[in-house]
Design a protein that fits this description.
There is one protein chain. By secondary structure, the chain is an alpha+beta fold. The chain has a domain of 190 residues. 17% of the residues are buried.
């Protein structure tokens, strides 16, 4: 595997990549990280170790929210606090590995992440490294022997029915995780809506295409009918023309026949007249002949 290809672009750019990270909201991650460290040290200095009687818990919202001081040797919200030093070492290792993985994922997909996802990861990253510092370095240093928790929430009675103490890093982890989950859900819902709209548009286009094809078929049928009608008209015209030609031919033939008959009749009449004239001449000649004979 090529190492250069597996290294995120933002890490390849070095200082310029870091400045780009700050410009795109990375400053918010550092702000939350140092705010966590500062509030922990401030609460530890205010309440003292052990907690001074002069500085007891400070109620912000009675029965719901107050300020206090405890040292947590376990995980978030005090879980695993009584499991011994080995569990604390395990939690520190988990925090470190998780922090490195989050940095790598953030760097690798930095440009692809939406703003909400990016800031959610900033919160998670700040909270993870904030608690890692306490787990890794506060082993009874300056009286501090664990993660400093100072935000007291709830009590064992109404209205919360639960009680725990956390710090700003835990708040960042919780809020960041909630925002990240919501961002994924919203993104999924938006993508599903887009896909549904795309499918609906495709179906509408398909329906329009079907209607268009129906119109095309109808137009084609109408054109075929028109062509058929034109052909029929041409055929009828040709038939009429042929009929007229035949009629004219018959008339001409009839005229020729009549003409021939007339000529025949004329010839017959002429012949008859000639014969009659000949008979008359013969009769006259016979009469003349008889007369001459009588004179003799």
């Amino acid at each position: 595997m090529n190492k250069s290809n597996s290294t995120p672009d933002i890490l390849k750019k070095g200082w310029n990549g870091f400045l780009y990270f700050l410009k795109k909201g990375g400053w918010f991650c550092f702000l939350m990280f140092f705010l966590d460290l500062g509030t922990k040290l401030g609460m530890n200095a205010y309440f003292g170790n052990p907690v001074s009687p002069l500085h007891s818990n400070i109620d912000i919202i009675p029965g719901v929210l107050y300020l206090t001081l405890t040292y947590n040797t376990g995980a978030a919200y005090g879980s695993g606090a009584n499991m011994g030093p080995w569990m604390r070492i395990l939690f520190a290792c988990v925090s470190f590995i998780a922090g490195v993985v989050i940095i790598y994922i953030l760097a690798k997909y930095f440009k692809k992440l939406s703003g909400w996802k990016r800031y959610a990861i900033y919160l998670i990253l700040a909270g993870d490294w904030g608690n890692f510092i306490d787990r890794a370095f506060y082993w009874n240093k300056d009286g501090i022997y664990g993660v400093i928790d100072w935000i007291g929430v709830g009590n064992s009675s109404w209205p919360t029915f639960f009680q725990y103490v956390c710090n700003w890093a835990d708040v960042c982890l919780t809020i960041g995780a909630v925002i990240l989950v919501l961002a994924f859900i919203i993104e999924w819902a938006v993508e599903e809506k887009k896909q549904k709209q795309a499918v609906d548009e495709a179906m509408d286009k398909s329906k329009v295409g079907e209607v268009g094809s129906s119109y095309a078929v109808a137009e084609q049928m109408m054109e075929e009918e028109e062509q058929k009608a034109i052909k029929e008209e041409k055929s009828e015209a040709e038939v009429e023309t042929k009929t007229e030609e035949r009629t004219l031919s018959d008339v001409l033939r009839s005229d020729e026949s009549i003409s021939k008959e007339d000529k025949t009749e004329e010839k017959t009449e002429d012949k008859t007249n000639v014969e009659e004239e000949k008979k008359e001449d013969d009769g006259e000649f016979s009469s003349l002949s008889d007369f001459l004979k009588g004179e003799k």
